[in-house]
Amino acid sequence: MTMADASTAKLRCANVHRSFRRKNGSVLRAVVDISLAAQPGTVTALVGPDGAGKTTLLRMITALITPDQGSIEVAGVDVCKNPSAVQAMVGYMPQRFGLYEDLTVEENLNLYANLHGVPARRRQAVYEPLMKMTALAPFMHRLAGRLSGGMKQKLGLACTLVRTPELLVLDEPTVGVDPVSRRELWEIIARLVGESGLTVVMSTPYLDEAERCDAALVLYEGRVISAGPPHAMRELAAGRVFRISPPVGQTPRYMQSRLMNQPGLVDAVPEGGQVRCVTAPSSADANPLAGLMPQPAAPRFEDGFMITLPQNQSSAASAAVRGQRAPANQILAESIGNARPNNSPGSEEPVVEVHDLVRRFGEFIAVNHVTFTVRRREIFGLLGPNGAGKSTTFRMLCGLLPPTSGTLRVAGVDARRAGSAARQRLGYVAQKFSLYGHLTMAQNLAFFASAYGLHSAKRRARLAWAIEEFELGDYLQTLSGAAPGGYKQRLAMACALLHEPELLFLDEPTSGVDPLARREFWQRINTLAEGGVTVVVTTHFMEEAEYCDRLLILNNGRILAQGSPAEVRQHALAKDSQPPTMEDAFIAIVEASAVAGGGKA
Amino acid sequence: MSAPMPYSPPPAFASLRRVLALVYKEGMQILRDPSSIAISIVLPIVLILLFGYGLSLDIKQVPIALVVEGSSPAATSLAGSFRLTRYFDPQTVPTLHAAEILLQQRRVLGIVWIRHGFSRDFQARRARVAVLVQGAEVNRDRLIQGYAASVIQQWSQQQAGRLGVVWQPGATVESRVWFNEAMRSRLFLVPGVIVLVMTLIGALMTALVVSREWERGTMESLFVTPVRAGEILLGKTIPYFMLGMIGLALCIFSATVLFKVPLVGSVWVLAVASGLYLLVALALGLLISTVAKNQFVAIQVAMLVTFLPAFILSGFIFDLRSMPPFIQAVTFVVPARYYVAVLQTIFLAGDVWAVLLPNGAVLLVMAVVLLALTRAKTRKRLL
């Protein structure tokens, strides 16, 4: 940013620092030396995983937290010197809506209109376009708590827009929202910026959303690791992105798992029935994918991001290390071509059988006539936005919640009567970190080993396996609550697998995890599935469906689609010569069902 | 947006419209949240009934075993007195041994033993009637002893009158304080409930609703508006003050109408004093929730800091003067102590200004200090 830019900017942060003292006395550097300038009429995205410092930075901009060092100005007003002036002119939507759930849509709007001094006679004129834009007009008298996740986000946005703010600050507005609402939210933001020249600063964990912004700052552990227009990030990956089709009879996920550790590659993800690869910049080979018939593909923000990641920066060195594990290039082509011609797990007997499952909570139907089967050694995905019924289905499968009606068989046992014998055969990793934070990693492992009744030689063997398999050695004596996020998740998985379950349930294992850790996680899941474990996993990242053998898309408690990723993707039409993504498929399915059902709201 | 509102600079003074908007919001939340109604309306009624009927130190129809040895007219007449009184439900057994078995089986709670030669001894002025109780529940057993003693006393008075002798108190009669105590207990327990209700609504509920706003993230949204910290506090204080006054009215109504507790002093003095205490409780609740930003911690702290002291250390149930000096010293910082003194005075003694003024002054000082502290502690900041 030049000086001229900074003077006209709606928001200017200069060398901002903020640290927090943790309970155990150590210091967390949440934001380290961040500078940014947001020009009027632009959208700036803060991109990064949980703990990157996004929320802390946004809270400093809205004067909710004071910076330790550095200065922040909003429309020329110093945030530290005049916090109430800044709070009066900024529109802010925190992560948790900030809505009063026991007030109606109209009452929420009225409250914020009154707080912002919008005269009563002007209200209709202000509300009308807002309601039109958010499509909330028919729900004015509904309690905010009874709205869907996407509608709550739109209402939260409308409440900040009862008057035009100097700066609109949105903290993860699209997290946990279904793809349709997500798209609508983006359309609203684009209109606001286009029509009234609003300036927006927002945070998001989704890298694809950075592409829609005018500027994107990638944050990682409190620091900016890249900043600038998203096309600059894309250009980093220009000419280095390829799509590879797996040989006939092989799943893309199997091929992806082989390619992931390949030297000279910084990324490999399954997508649209193919594997999308990004080659390393300083790769010694001309193309590490030679012989696999790579087709060039258009680069994306995420490809550039994978290249920028500190872990991938020293790619020459890491490639050398990784190269020792992965086979040489040519052998790879062969092994991919020949090994395990078809690992399709579909042929084996069902491990989970769910028939006509219903769960009601009073009037509310959380799970509405759901039927599916999971076969042995399969990776089975339950996809859907927050509130779709994923977790409720999961709790019933684990025998934690009795179903209202329907049958459930898990590992051959009726889950309604699943005793300890049935539980012995399944492992469960809950959505939140549910281990003992005040015990060390080793103590947690020992506790779970005892809980599962492991003893003597068996116990020692399993503990040794867990420590090696999940590479926990360095953190064994660390309190698990203080361990880095990625290690917490590894520990949770290790604990769930100590008793060698044949079936593993993972609830939202990748939410809030950075893209690199997510890839590493799916790598492990692959390995487990190949080792004979059946995995059932929930996620709200639509693209993660590609890692599953089969999947189920849930929305409002109902099944929207079911089948292999390829089958589900067929619901959407190809556009721009690119195969449709899972998100395109979701939107197409929802729109089709809305048309069929007469457009239920 | 077609109708944007231009940005206006933050006003320098509290805006009535914003405060009203917050009060209206809070009011709607109270009306829609069954738990606030439960705490402010149902709980006072339950407490009044509980303390009014349940915790009465009165006893009625207590099952006892009556052992009458011999059949002298005096003994029979005394046994008759035990049968006629509404306090006891006696069961006549032939021997002390049989009575002891009943006592062990807990089918009776006490034994009255009228021994051989009672008539003779009575005339000789040395009659002794044994009243045996288990001693497991000391309070109740003392009551039984007291009532038994009073029955015997009344009977001997009648006998003396009938025989034309001047009655002299015999060695058998115990103190009769308990008898009146039972009557008095309700008179001070029912007004005492007011202190509990005011503490619950003032401190516990505000601590709860403010920490709920922190938990749900609504506080964060409120902060990033032109609203001022003082306005947020007013927006919480006004509705719960009104709710507390409704609770007070309910309590006064049920105390005077349902339990016929006399209200000797003026209702208006009572209302002013209660308003002062309510402000203290509200300030405490708000202060707690600025520190504890989640509902669980807030309720724990509010219980410990406000409700339990109001229950135990206020002189409401337990007499302050019988406490060890250290605990007595602690009670001076418990606001409920001053309020209980005011309540008992207004209800039972009237507008005794010598008591009301100093206690009211302490409450006023506490309210001012705590509200100022709360205002200073409340910033539109998360950390």
Briefly summarize what is shown:
By secondary structure, chain A is of the alpha/beta class. Chain A has a six-stranded mixed beta sheet with strand order 6-7-8-3-9-10, sandwiched between helices. Chain A has a six-stranded mixed beta sheet with strand order 20-21-22-17-23-24, sandwiched between helices.
Topology:
The complex is a heterodimer of chains A (601) and B (383).
Chain A: H1 3-8, E1 11-21, E2 27-38, E3 43-47, H2 54-61, E4 69-74, E5 77-78, H3 83-89, E6 90-93, H4 105-115, H5 120-134, H6 149-160, E7 167-171, H7 179-196, E8 200-204, H8 207-210, E9 215-220, E10 223-228, H9 230-236, E11 241-244, H10 252-259, E12 265-271, E13 274-279, E14 295-296, H11 301-308, H12 310-313, H13 315-325, H14 329-338, E15 350-361, E16 364-375, E17 379-383, H15 390-397, E18 405-410, E19 413-414, H16 420-423, E20 426-429, H17 441-451, H18 456-469, H19 485-497, E21 503-506, H20 515-530, E22 534-539, E23 550-555, E24 558-563, H21 565-569, H22 582-596
Parallel strand pairs in A: 3-8, 3-9, 6-7, 7-8, 17-22, 17-23, 20-21, 21-22
Antiparallel strand pairs in A: 1-2, 1-4, 4-5, 9-10, 11-13, 11-14, 12-13, 15-16, 15-18, 18-19, 23-24
Helix pairs in contact in A: 4-6, 5-6, 6-7, 9-11, 17-18, 17-19
Chain B: H1 16-32, H2 34-54, E1 62-68, H3 73-84, E2 88-93, H4 96-104, E3 110-114, H5 118-123, E4 129-133, H6 138-163, H7 177-216, H8 218-223, H9 229-258, H10 267-291, H11 295-312, H12 325-331, H13 335-349, H14 353-377
Parallel strand pairs in B: 1-2, 1-3
Antiparallel strand pairs in B: 3-4
